[in-house]
Amino acid sequence: MEKAIHIKYPESLANALKLSPENFEKEIKMSSLVKLYEMGKISSGVAAKVLGIARIDFLDQLSNYKVSQLGYSNLDEVNEDIENA
Q1: What pLDDT does residue 38 have?
Q2: Which of 20, 41, 53, 72 could lock onto 77 through a cystine, CB 3.0 to 4.6 A?
């Protein structure tokens, strides 16, 4: 069963981002799924499925949002993992 989320927003918000209403809705969907992935709430596979794209395409998009494909939020986490390996 699929559910839908409806978000009211002023047209000026999409205009401020220089996006058409259709592209603004895609951006909201992508950015919310990227954030859920970054927080560790969903997998890249789940995000890709919701977006209707391949997992590798979702992972490629992460750099546009400055999110690591490896799940690290900063260099300290990388170094800590290396030390614990």
Answers
A1: 92
A2: 72
